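hey can u run this one w/ zinc ion bound, need the structure tokens asap thx
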Amino acid sequence: MKAEPTRLADGVFMVGGPDMTDPRDCLCYLVAGGEARVLIDCGAGPSAANILDLVDQAVGRPPTHLLITHAHIDHAGGAAEIKDLTGCQVLIHAEEAGVLAEGDAQRSAATWYGLPLRRITADRLVAGGDALGLGGEARLHIIHTPGHTPGSICAWCDVGGQRVLFGQDVHGPFSPGFNSDIAQWRSSMEVLLNLEADILAEGHYGIFKPAEEVGAFIRAQLRQHQGA
Ligand SMILES: [Zn+2]
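ok here u go:
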């Protein structure tokens, strides 16, 4: 497996994923500023230490925060171990927090993956409109994007004149077991399109850039689920 972080922009790296850490991991990202280093999603669990190793390779220090975009195990399974190893602040939307706190094997999709989900209680609940200070003027903005799951969030930041959007599971999938809502998802995708991001860091499909490619990918997803 490839064992080095991929740089997307100044202070922005991919630090985990199926080709880097574990086939069951979503793509995991790191945004680092002068004061905070935010890990965005943390894989299915078995690779938690490897992801931290890639964070260390990227910025030489552990994450200060773990922002979980939703409670599916491929995004959140490593949270308890990463908390144990670093003491970082674990952040998630209120509508997802219970899934992790209760170790809900269905809503976390742990049953699909055949992996145990270690319970964890988040340190802080985040909501759309919140922003995390990264240092100086730099901020990581949170958007509530329900659809795939009720408490799915995306995050974005402006770095070096480029807008980077972390849009995990923008593509779905949708399932009653996840409490998915396609109508809400469509509205969420419109919000993402309006951001006019230059780079989309997706949770499973990789990196899309420039802005035209980001828009084209999101619109293609919307077309695929037309009338669904
Ligand atoms: Zn998911």
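The two ends are 38 Å apart (CA to CA). anyway lmk if its weird
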